[in-house]
């Protein structure tokens, strides 16, 4: 009976997803360009990133490097390897995810786009899932160096995830508390897919912390938030679903 109540509650929460999550707003045209700080737009094909700047190939075949200091915005859809890495990570295929994420980071590390930032974070998450913790920590440190202006919540959640892997629940909880991400998530509306994935990971971590402290009711609620309200990270959602079902079965927990 408790499992049935859990299932019904999850189905009701799924109805909220369409109202809470909107597309991230990536350009669909495929047109690549660099907008300079003065407002000029340089169309072309973005080949990659070097320490000196962004490599741009014009329609005439000429290649130049545009200094980061001159760049206001970059318009470029994510390469197929990025989507492949996300899909493989969500399916638990870390070998394929690592191959594709590494390819993206190797070419576009430092590109001022949301997907390039997410690719670097994803690489760290993949290393964490593979229990290669020194590599994961190095990637997260590199993220803070390469994208110093990026919101800190991504790294806070990533580092809390590493704490959980080391069974340091107190440290993980402190990182979530200091970031304020859980309270902020419940107040947000019209989330991007990226934010929904981030919040889903945060609530999955929170659920693990509460379950470890034997707050099974609180853990169930956080797991179901990941599953139904913030399911952007497929791996976190699948793991949260598994833990929620286990709580209902093993501890007789029901949704209030």
Structure description:
This protein has helices spanning 2-14, 17-20, 80-90, 94-108, 114-129, 133-146, 153-165, 169-179, 181-187, 193-212, 216-229, 234-251; strands spanning 33-36, 41-43, 45-50, 53-57, 63-66, 71-75. With 256 residues, the protein is mostly helical. The strands form 2 sheets. A 3-stranded antiparallel beta sheet has the order 2-1-6, with no helix packed on it. It has a 3-stranded antiparallel beta sheet with strand order 3-4-5, with no helix packed on it. Helix 3 packs parallel to helix 5 (114-129).
Q: How are the elements arranged and paired?
A:
Blueprint: H1 2-14, H2 17-20, E1 33-36, E2 41-43, E3 45-50, E4 53-57, E5 63-66, E6 71-75, H3 80-90, H4 94-108, H5 114-129, H6 133-146, H7 153-165, H8 169-179, H9 181-187, H10 193-212, H11 216-229, H12 234-251
Antiparallel strand pairs: 1-2, 1-6, 3-4, 4-5
Helix pairs in contact: 1-11, 3-4, 3-5, 4-5, 5-6, 5-7, 6-7, 7-8, 7-10, 8-10, 10-11, 10-12, 11-12
Question: What keywords describe this structure?
Answer:
256 residues, 2 domains, 6 strands, elongated, three-stranded antiparallel beta sheet, 12 helices, Serine Threonine Protein Phosphatase 5, Tetratricopeptide repeat, SH3 type barrels, mainly alpha
Query: Which oligomeric state applies?
Result: single chain
How many strand elements? 6
Residues in helices, as a percent range: 55-70%
How large is the radius of gyration? Answer: 20 Å
Listing every helix as H and every strand as E from the N terminus to the C terminus, the arrangement reads: HHEEEEEEHHHHHHHHHH
| Domain module count | 2
The CATH superfamily label of the largest domain reads Tetratricopeptide repeat domain
The name of the CATH topology of the largest domain is: Serine Threonine Protein Phosphatase 5, Tetratricopeptide repeat
For the largest sheet, list the strands in their spatial order: 2-1-6
Can you tell me the residue ranges where pLDDT is under 50 for at least 5 consecutive residues? 1-29
For the sheet with most strands, the description reads:
3 strands, antiparallel
Distance between the termini: 13 Å
Class of the largest domain, according to the CATH hierarchy? Mainly Alpha
Global mean pLDDT = 88
Q: Please state the second-level CATH architecture of the largest domain.
A: Alpha Horseshoe
């Amino acid at each position: 009976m408790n499992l049935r109540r859990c299932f019904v509650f999850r189905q009701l929460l799924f109805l909220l997803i369409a109202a809470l999550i909107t597309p991230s707003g990536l350009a669909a045209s495929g047109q690549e360009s660099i907008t300079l700080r003065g407002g000029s737009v340089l169309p072309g094909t973005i080949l990659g990133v070097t320490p000196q700047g962004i490599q741009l190939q014009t329609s005439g075949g000429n290649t130049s490097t545009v200094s980061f200091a001159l760049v206001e915005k970059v318009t470029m859809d994510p390469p197929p390897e990025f989507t492949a890495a996300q899909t493989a990570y969500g399916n638990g295929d870390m070998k394929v995810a690592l191959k594709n994420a590494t390819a993206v980071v190797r070419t576009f590390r430092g590109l001022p786009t949301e997907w390039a930032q997410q690719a670097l974070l994803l690489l760290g998450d993949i290393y964490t899932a593979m229990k290669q913790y020194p590599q994961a920590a190095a990637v997260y440190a590199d993220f803070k160096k390469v994208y110093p202006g990026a919101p800190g919540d991504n790294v806070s959640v990533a580092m809390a995830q590493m704490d959980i892997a080391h069974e340091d629940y107190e440290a993980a909880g402190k990182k979530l508390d200091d970031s304020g991400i859980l309270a902020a998530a419940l107040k947000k509306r019209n989330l991007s897919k990226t934010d929904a994935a981030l919040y889903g990971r945060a609530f999955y971590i929170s659920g693990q912390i509460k379950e470890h402290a034997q707050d099974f009711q609180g853990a169930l609620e956080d797991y179901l938030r990941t599953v139904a309200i913030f399911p952007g990270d497929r791996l976190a959602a699948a793991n949260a679903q598994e833990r929620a079902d286990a709580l209902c079965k093993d501890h007789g927990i029901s949704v209030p």
